Amino acid sequence: MACLSSRPFEGRRVLLCVTGGIAAYKTPKLVRHLTKAGCEVETILTHAAGEFVAPLALATLSGRRVWQEEDLLSGERGFEIPHIRLAEWAEAIAVAPCTANTAAALAQGRAEGLIGATLLAARAPVLLFPAMNAHMLEHPATQENLRTLAGRGVRVVEPAVGALACGGEGRGRMPEPEEIAEEVFRALAPHDMEGVHILVTAGPTREYLDPVRYLSNPSTGRMGLAMAREAWRRGAEVRVVLGPVEAPCVLHGLQVTSIVSALEMRDAVMASLSWAHVIVKAAAVGDYRAKERAERKVKREGRPEIAVSLVQNPDIAAEVGRVKRPDQFLLGFAAETDDLLRNARAKLERKGLDGILVNDVLAPGSGFASETNTLRLICREGEEESFSGLKEDVACAVWGSLVRRGLIVQS
Ligand SMILES: Cc1cc2nc3c(=O)[nH]c(=O)nc-3n(C[C@H](O)[C@H](O)[C@H](O)COP(=O)(O)O)c2cc1C
Question: For domain 197-295+306-404, which CATH number applies: 1.10.443.10, 3.40.50.720, 3.40.50.10300, 3.10.580.10?
Answer without folding.
Answer: 3.40.50.10300
